[in-house]
Amino acid sequence: MDVNNSLESLEKEDPIKCIFFCEFHPVVGPIPENYISKEVFDSVSVYIITKLELQRSTITVTLPNYKILGFPVRIDDKKYARNAFQFNLCFVCNTKARAVHYEPVVTKLSDYLIALEVENNFLSGGNLANNLSPILKQVLNDLNTKGECALTEGPTATHLKVVKIRHSPQAVVDCQVPIFIKPLPEDKWDLTTQQVAPFIDGFNHVARIANLSDVENNLVKACVQNLVYYGVVALVPLFQYSNIYCTTPKLNVLIQDVDLQRICLKYVAKSQRYLPCIRDVFRIYAAMTRGTTIRDLCVRFNPANLRINERKLVQFGVLEGIIRRVHKYPVFLGDCPELNKSLSGLASLDEICCATGIGAQQLEDQLEKDNNVVMLWK
Question: What average pLDDT score do residues 31-52 get?
Answer without folding.
Answer: 78
